[in-house]
TrEMBL record:
Domain Alpha-L-rhamnosidase concanavalin-like: 366-466
Pfam families in the cross-refs: Bac_rhamnosid, Bac_rhamnosid6H, Bac_rhamnosid_C, Bac_rhamnosid_N, Ig_Rha78A_N
EC class of the enzyme, as a word: hydrolase
Alphabetical UniProt keywords: Hydrolase
UniProt organism field: Nocardia tenerifensis
A GO term, aspect molecular function: alpha-L-rhamnosidase activity
Protein name: alpha-L-rhamnosidase
Length: 921
């Protein structure tokens, strides 16, 4: 159900924090979030969604009511003066998506808040610790700053600086820097980089929206002279042509690089920055970018989002961003033309350095050519430490593969001949120098270094992994190291896409947000906290919506050159929106985008013919079951390949998934009539699929591929009396194929969903441990350190780091560990734990951090004895299905676990929150 958007008070209430007759409970209220962020600053949502966790050592803790209060200062809360909002005691078990309904805060205003809850026995908790949020700049007139650019553009990227004075008298209460730069920027203040984020701002369609970030710079300022500076890079905003450097896939409009035209030149780099210093006496000092700022040529000579970065350290001006720096010879900035239409706060987690990798091997295949092997594919930067004469130019060439010991860029530069992805560093000659690129990224494992003045050591180069700074929220391990390795390489490829909310899945050739790729990579995988990331993705998707209501399959896609009609790509964001709601309970983006979602779905239905969605050719933007075994670029749709599935089947499944998601979204928003209608339409699509494609002679669908049959089962297309036969046909196909999943990214998702739902863990286990082609084990035996794009990958060509065929890993958590939500549950309020003790495994364990708290499921067996241990967070209930190793096994359970069923294969219990242990002998 939709949360309480009005904040209306319910149940018994006491608006103040004064003593209430209720007795107290030991439940602690912790983990307060605002729009699923912890104590955010610079947000522009005036009615954010609030949430919290309950922590208790007791069993079966349930929340029956809550009270939220908000004030202008922590002191006001301490004195029981919630001047901004008091919800009163509100009868509700809801602890996510509680919409703030107090006085709308102004730009830059801080809000301090806390919450307490009542449990089912009407005992009240203590007030939570005080949390906070702070608004950013909300309206155009909140900005006194102006966009500025270089008044005399040159080949080098500009650097901007401005000196200002902080009074020696007056205590600074807080200082905020609001800043954006196109395409990417790095803010600096008094000789220091501001913030840990990189590759900022997130990629958007800059014609529609540009993002700014807010930085707390209170500790950066000093009395007297100060200097604020900004470096800029081209990023995705401005992709210039340079002979010999790769730039092809930003737009295919330029003829795959053949026309020689600039790929997408959106304009000169530009900056907007506004520093606000608030003093204890209430005064505010503003320092705003305008034509009085100074600009000069910086050390970055070339900045290509695809082709790399060239940096001349001789051009670095020491102290340029320091109060002692001399800007007298710099030119004045110009007010920028063609400025972005909308400036919005970037609320999603920024990209930051996540890890540093040390090379595991150093070779010299040719004199003066050194190759570093980092041992794994990753996305990020090379970082070099070097000493030598001024003017020495060092080339850094990344790649996934080696060819006769040298780096090969096969799979990185598409079909464009005679181009290179490379970074170049020219030494200043000033002792030991350390450098890495700033304004782009690469996917690579190997790095070829040329031009070094002396032979390097293994530690001369490190690899910097960059990704969104969002926390890991799931872990998995089991007794089979092969499965653990599959989980790790899938995780590595997922991280490699975490450089923007639309998650560009190819880190080199395209860097484009293919939405089905994002969908299959995240479906059923709880590895990271994507709550804010998903909201940002929807912002970009609906910014890009076409006038007729259609959605884009690539987001952002500024040229719109390649129209995509495949529903699994265009409709993926709606499916993800509903799955995100089910995981986090966040209805705010559903409320915000529902009219646009509805318009899109109505357009899809108008294109169907008797419930079947018509599909076109690959050249028309239909991809079908992309990357099925044996698929080749030269002939992506190959009816002669036994594993090829007609795209009419997969796009119809896509249409069905969208209908199911729309029904769930409508239900969440209390749009009951729409929910019933969309549900009816989903049933209509499934029935049409059965009518059109079922083959009664084989109990399969279409041409009998695993994909065509699995998506029928996933839709519930077979009538009840045929379902067992259809499932048996799917299993038989897999078994006769040598326990291989002969499917691409769409079919793989459907097959794993169906077999998990049907409890055929035996089949999935045999698939998981297979090592012959096509399988995960086959990839690993051929040297994979991340998930490749294609089953044909053999460590020689193609994209080596792309999470579109990782669908099996959802089974590790949902099947082997058995952690799932009940079908109609929201935000894990009702959990189902049904672990699979299968194959030769002796143990498995998984942990998921949910918005309610931690869920764990672990099991271990020794012969005919086994232990299952489960933890459920407060305010959740669980159904726990314990698999029996023998039908007559003696089973003991924790006190309070209610046995509700037992048969020869399992025992089913109902529990509340807490830790529960089940032992069988």
């Amino acid at each position: 159900m939709d949360s309480n958007p009005s904040g209306a008070q319910g149940g018994s209430s006491n608006a103040s924090g004064a003593a209430i007759a209720d007795t107290t409970t030991d439940v602690a209220v912790l983990g307060l979030t605002v729009d699923y962020l912890v104590d955010p600053i610079g947000i522009d949502d005036r009615t954010p969604s609030l949430g919290w966790r309950l922590v208790s050592a007791e069993h079966s803790v349930r929340q029956s009511a809550y009270q939220v209060r908000a004030a202008s200062s922590p002191q006001d809360l301490e004195l029981d003066r919630p001047d901004l909002w008091d919800s009163g005691k509100t009868a509700s078990a809801q602890q996510t998506d509680i919409v703030y309904a107090g006085r709308p805060p102004a730009a830059g205003e801080e809000v301090f808040w806390q919450v307490r809850v009542w449990t089912g026995d009407d005992r009240v908790s203590a007030w939570s610790p005080v949390a906070r949020w702070e608004m950013g700049l909300l309206e155009p007139n909140d900005w006194t700053a102006q966009w500025i650019s270089d008044s005399t553009p040159s080949a080098s990227l500009p650097i901007f600086a401005h000196r200002f004075t902080v009074p020696t008298q007056g205590r600074i209460e807080r200082a905020r820097l609001y800043v954006s730069g196109l395409g990417l920027y790095e803010p600096r203040l008094n000789g220091r980089k501001v913030g840990a984020d990189v590759l900022t701002p997130s990629v958007t369609d800059y014609r529609k929206r540009t993002l700014y970030r807010t930085y707390d710079v209170s500790e950066h300022l000093r009395a007297g002279n100060n200097v604020v500076g900004v470096m800029v890079g081209n990023g995705f905003f401005n992709v210039p042509e340079r002979e010999g450097r790769y730039w092809e896939s930003v737009t295919w409009k330029s003829g795959l690089g053949g026309s020689g035209e600039t790929v997408r030149l959106s304009g000169e780099p530009k900056v907007i920055a506004q520093l606000e210093i608030r003093y204890a006496d209430g005064t505010v000092q503003r320092v705003s970018s305008d034509a009085s700022w100074r600009v000069d040529d910086g050390p970055i000579e070339f900045s290509g989002y695809y082709g790399g970065e060239d940096y001349d350290a001789r051009r670095w001006q020491s102290n340029w961003d320091h109060p002692d720096g001399d800007h007298s010879h710099w030119r004045y900035a110009a007010l920028a033309s063609d400025t972005p239409a909308v400036l919005s706060a970037q609320f999603e987690p920024a990209v930051a350095e996540a890890q540093r990798l040390t090379a595991v091997e150093l070779t010299e295949p040719e004199p003066g050519v050194y190759v570093f092997d980092f041992g794994t594919c990753f996305v990020g930067w090379p970082c070099i430490e070097v000493e030598g004469p001024a003017g020495t130019r060092v080339a850094l060439v990344p790649g996934w593969y080696l060819d006769d010991g040298r780096v090969s860029q096969s799979g990185m530069v598409g079909w464009v001949p005679n181009v290179l992805v490379a970074d170049h560093y020219t030494l200043s000659g000033d002792g030991v120098e350390t450098w890495h690129p700033r304004f782009g990224y690469h996917g690579f494992r190997f790095l070829e270094v040329r031009g070094l003045p002396t032979a390097p050591s293994l530690s001369s180069v490190t690899g910097i992994v960059v990704r969104a700074a969002t926390g890991a929220t799931a872990e998995f391990e089991c007794s089979a190291e092969l499965l653990n390795t599959i989980y790790r390489i899938a995780d590595r490829s997922l991280q490699s896409a975490m450089v923007s909310p639309t998650m560009p899945t190819d880190p080199n050739r395209e860097k484009a947000g293919w939405q089905a790729d994002r969908d299959v990579a995240l479906s059923g995988v709880y590895r990271y906290d994507f709550a804010a990331y998903n909201q940002a993705m929807l912002r970009e998707v609906f910014d890009a919506q076409r006038g007729d209501g259609d959605l884009q399959g690539i987001v952002p896609d500024p040229t719109g050159f390649w129209y995509i009609g495949d529903t699994n790509w265009t409709g993926a964001p709606i499916v993800q929106a509903y799955e995100s709601y089910r995981r986090y309970g966040d209805a705010a983006p559903l409320r915000r985008h529902y009219p646009a979602m509805r318009q899109y779905f109505q357009l899809l239905r108008s294109r169907e013919k008797d419930g079947i969605y018509p599909a076109g050719e690959f050249s028309e933007g239909y991809f079908g079951d992309w990357m099925y075994p044996g698929q080749h670029w030269q002939k992506p749709f190959d009816p002669d390949n036994a594993h090829f599935t007609a795209p009419e089947t997969t796009v119809t499944w896509g249409s069905w998934r969208i209908a199911v998601a729309m029904a769930g979204i409508a239900q969440a928003l209390d749009r009951t009539d729409d929910a019933h209608e969309f549900g009816r339409q989903a049933e209509e699509i499934a029935a049409a699929y059965h009518r059109e494609f079922f083959d009664p002679a084989t109990a399969t669908y279409a041409n009998g591929t695993q994909t065509a049959t699995a998506i029928a089962l996933d839709m519930g297309a077979p009538p009840r009396d045929l379902r067992d036969a259809v499932l048996a046909a799917l299993v038989e196909n897999i078994r006769e194929s040598g326990n291989h999943l002969n499917a691409g990214m769409i079919g793989l998702l459907a097959i794993v969903r169906v077999l998990t739902d049907e409890g055929r863990h035996d089949v999935l286990y045999d698939v998981a441990v297979e090592t012959s082609y096509p399988s995960y084990g086959y990839w690993l035996e051929h040297g994979a350190t991340s998930l490749p794009e294609s089953w044909e990958w053999t460590n020689r060509e193609g994209v080596a780091d792309l999470n579109i065929l990782g669908g099996l890993t959802s089974w590790f958590t949902q099947g082997l560990a058995g952690i799932r939500q009940e079908p109609t549950a929201i935000a894990f309020d009702r959990v189902r734990i049904a672990p699979a003790i299968v194959g030769s495994l002796t143990s498995a364990a998984a942990t998921i951090q949910t918005v309610r708290g931690e869920i764990t499921s672990r099991w271990h067996r020794d012969g005919t004895a086994a232990t299952v241990k489960v933890s459920i967070p407060a305010n959740s209930t669980a159904t726990i299905v314990v698999p029996l190793l023998r039908k007559d096994a003696e089973l003991t359970a924790s006190d309070d676990a209610q046995l509700i069923d037992r048969d020869e294969r399992s025992a089913t219990y109902r529990t509340g929150s807490g830790t529960w242990t089940f032992e069988q002998r």
